[in-house]
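job 3f2a | input accepted
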Amino acid sequence: MSLEDYAKNSLWPILVETVHALVMYAHHKSYTREVILNEKTDIKSNELAARLGVPLGEALVILHELKEQVE
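job 3f2a | predicted structure (71 res):
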């Protein structure tokens, strides 16, 4: 599934709310924007989750939000 497919799911807002409540979310998002995406712009959500050691849901939300900021 693509990021857009996940975002269209009716449970997406609940996932986003849950991820935003995570203590390290802001740090993970910042690190992804400033370091990881500079090294690999086309990183997949499962790769990001493994690299950060975070759940796939958090990686999905981070990549989706960073993609929206660029557009």
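job 3f2a | The first helix runs from residue 3 to 8.
job 3f2a | closed
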